[in-house]
Amino acid sequence: MKKGIYIYFLVSGWLIIKCTADVLAGKDEYYQAPHSTYSIDTTPEDPNRCTDNVPSRCDPTYPYRTFDGTCNNLDHPRWGSANECYLRFQKAFYEGYGEVRKSMRGNSLPEPRQLTLNIFTDAHRPTPKTSFMLTIFGQGVAHDLGDVVLLNANVDCCASGSENNPACLPILFRPNDPDFSRYNVTCIQFHTSKNCNLCNTANREQISDVTSVLDASIVYDCSNERSNNMRAYDGTGKLISNQTNEGELLPNGKDPGDGFCPKAQESMCFLAGDRRVNQHATLTSLQTLLLREHNRLATSLKQMNPHWDEERLFQEARRINIAQLQCITYKEYLPYVLGPNLMEQFNLNIRDGPDGTLYNPNTRPGIVNEFSTAAFRLHSMVASKVGALGLHFEDLYLNPKLIWEGHMDKLMKGVCQVPSEKFDHWYTKGVTVELTKQPDSSYGSDLSSTDIQRGRDAGLAPYIYLVRFCSENQIKIMTFDDLSSMMSAENIELLKQNYDSVEDVDLWVGLHMEYHLPGAEVGPTTACIIAKQFYLIKFGDRFYFEHIGQVPSFTPVQRNTLKQCSFSRLLCDNTNITQTQKNVMLLPSAENPEVSCNEIPKIDLSLWKDWESS
């Protein structure tokens, strides 16, 4: 088998990927855009980019991350930083420079809302093994890794004449829509992405507002100014928080770019490192948990090292907090999304013991458009019920009041007790009708239609091109019937009924239709894209916690104890929860029983005692 090749084959009704991860190490794995090399893994900074704010030099001896992600790669200071262009695995598909592509017959593509009604219908299809916490945690990771910059989010894209506004790509509903017609809703807002600051490119590209590595930017933000405004600066190294009878909460405030703070609860909204913190109460709870953990770490470090100043206390607490987030992602989250084969083949597993991994300065840790805009949008896994207070998920939207009322522990415990939904084309109404529904409103929005429109605005290549890419050209889909090894006959028929040609199928739609890999929550093409992305942000991140031989590397004993990480330990240390299953990404079972917090391993913070300076 050719080195780096992917081969799909069918075994007992399951589609398997055979692959090797070293194709990504130092290889040109991205699509090379005409007249531009900005997306190539091994090239210098793109000479065709209209550059701005490039650091004049990086200090190779500085042991901490910058907030905006610059100087992670010392030779290419902007790799992985905030406000960078998204990368691509495949060329962009637009009409002209940046208009939504047409079908192969030259017609408009199927309306997003009609695809939702015809394909992404309501059903309860729970996973047998994974908890709803897997989905909630995954959204936190997704927000840490990407947030597309919009051209103008303040425009009313449903107003008359907005169809000619370049900032708008409204999603239209038919007059007989079964869900929205009763409310006289014929349109939902969709704001287009801002063009990345590139010169001499053949088409539009998108910008990420956040860093491209897993650095807890949802806690610490991605700019010096905003990050500094969130710090207490009282000699403790802590972040600002609200001290309440219900525990430590995020600070009050409304981010000007929030969009998730309802006027009725404006005084209760929270500020965090990510503007989407108020989107729903379980996401708010997750970000509150990470803030509490930072402050807990800072307190412990100060007790051990009273001679440390404010900056060192803050940065060391931040460094450990980020390491735990990375550890939980690669140890407890990704294995159940990707399955054991891809975890091993892409070297994504966390190994026991003090051994470390090697940073590769030729690996570019950018976020890939196909990942952020399609493959990692696992919204069909959102469950209807949250397992607490008798609430449905739609009751949590734009509802920070639930946190102020002291329900955070119940929400966190609840999502550990109920299953996620399966990743497939069945969606709960809480996502397709009631998305971000305000507490006093009768209806919300449609996330599946929005996701389809987002892929078109981003110019994502159709589904079959990513199948070809992930199979190293071994699989070429020419007709709908060529999909028979990848999805059921029923799913193929759904695609036939809604698309003129197999080449028209949107990437996001096609990914939902595949058979799942063994031991994974997703199909092979989704898994391929996600695995490649997490390889890049692991081995292309100089500060990744397992790496050895770098200025910011942890000591072997520190690295070994950090590998004891678990989300259950975060819950035990930062809430009033006293018992939970050891792996909260999985449902409680005989193999994963609830245990006392006393039985869940702790990270040994005494290994950060500074004996030389004390």
| Overall geometry | globular
The residue fraction in helices comes out at: 25-40%
What fraction of the residues are assigned to beta strands by DSSP?
5-15%
Widest β-sheet, arrangement of strands: 1-2
Determine the oligomeric state from the structure: single chain
InterPro entries: Haem_peroxidase_animal, Haem_peroxidase_sf, Haem_peroxidase_sf_animal
Signal peptide: 1-21
Main location: secreted
Pfam families: An_peroxidase
Protein architecture, described:
Helix content is about 30%, strand content about 5%. It is mainly α and about 625 residues long. The strands form seven sheets. A two-stranded antiparallel sheet has the order 1-2. α2 packs across α5 (about 280-305), α5 (about 280-305) crosses α6 and α5 packs across α10. The longest helix has 29 residues, at about 310-340. The chain is globular and about 75 Å long. The model is unreliable at about 1-50 (pLDDT under 50).
Task: Outline the fold blueprint.
Blueprint: E1 7-11, E2 14-18, E3 84-85, E4 94-95, E5 99-100, H1 112-118, E6 126-131, H2 132-145, E7 171-172, E8 187-188, E9 207-208, H3 217-220, H4 224-229, E10 242-244, E11 247-249, H5 281-304, H6 310-338, H7 340-345, H8 369-375, H9 401-404, H10 408-417, E12 419-421, H11 429-432, H12 447-457, H13 463-470, H14 489-498, H15 507-511, H16 524-539, H17 556-562, H18 567-574, E13 579-581, E14 594-596
Antiparallel strand pairs: 1-2, 3-9, 4-5, 6-12, 7-8, 10-11, 13-14
Summarize the structure.
Residues 1-21 form the signal peptide. With 614 residues, the chain is mainly alpha-helical.
